[in-house]
Amino acid sequence: MTTEPTATGGRVVTLTANPSLDRTLALPGPLERGAVARLGGSSGEPGGKGVNVARAVAAAGADVVSVLPAADDDPVVRALHALGLQLATVPVRTPVRTNYTLTEPDGTTTKLNEPGARLDPATLTALEAAVRAHALGARWVVLSGSLPPGAPLDWYASLVRSLRGTGARIAVDTSEAPLLALLAAGPDAAPDLLKPNTDELAQLAGVPEETVAADPAAALAAVAALHERGVAEVLLTLGADGALLSTADGGLWSARPPRTTVRSTVGAGDSSLAGYLLADLAGHDPAERLRNAVAYGSASAALPGSAVPTPAQADLAGVAVTAGPPPSTAPAEAVPAAGADAR
């Protein structure tokens, strides 16, 4: 029997070093380069991967603090305050970037992301201090998304080391050079939880994404290599195949998503991570943490733009969790549990 996780103990702290104002534009049909598209509608939401995680955690009634660089009068800050989020901001002069998402009727999304404001060393130091201050006594710290211009590629590794003495567990969700730098920094910089998708796992393994997406043995070997580097838990999102949870002590579970009509996969991976954290706050075992992650990711995919789900929208009963690796192919009706979110 599955039950909705109830937020009980512990605070979640998220760092979004490169926040954004996300604009979603709905296309009436497939995107055609060079053509004129009559948009079906548009929406705007505060974004950035850490912000998305914080929004989903807050929507479940859990204690969450979102740390980000932004001026007090920035539209993103005003929007987050309007949602009732608790913020810890470090002021910067440059407005928060705007990201654009083009959505097609079949759920295909195209992202156009601005680079973000350049952060000087003083701002980076202030962000680290803010995260550490709120991490004291927290259950989880989430470091997620791309790094802004000015941040060293190994900044996440430095932050993990800096946060070790706070008592909080550390989750990281990033990609490309910052992800490679994190895992190259050694076991003392390895997070407690890493949430890659198949593209990011392939980056770490140095193989094409198709290899880890189509071959469960290759994916499991790449996950095992992460444990060897010091990562305690790996939450691997597999798109239409659902997700996989692996622990350093040999635990392995896989989950299939429920049937869902996909509207947008933007932010689905962030919602998956939020669902996992919420289940952990509620004291659930690994299998149920995975179930909640996939339910939240699928619920997000059914929503427009980068909207985040509430607990009532997460179809826990529709998620099939089994011990062991997933089968190599997904059923035709399956949908992404977590998209390959642009950072």
TrEMBL record:
Keywords linked to the UniProt accession: ATP-binding, Kinase, Nucleotide-binding, Transferase
Region Disordered, residue ranges: 323-343
Biased-composition ranges, Low complexity, are 330-343
Q: One Pfam match, by short name?
A: PfkB
What CDD domains does its record include?
FruK_PfkB_like
Its Enzyme Commission number? 2.7.1.56
Q: Name one GO cellular component term.
A: cytosol
Q: What class of enzyme is it?
A: transferase
List, for all copies, the residue spans of the domain called Carbohydrate kinase PfkB: 44-311
One example of the protein's molecular function in GO is: 1-phosphofructokinase activity
Q: Which family does it belong to?
A: Belongs to the carbohydrate kinase PfkB family.
Instruction: Output this protein's name.
Output: 1-phosphofructokinase
Q: Which gene does this sequence derive from?
A: fruK
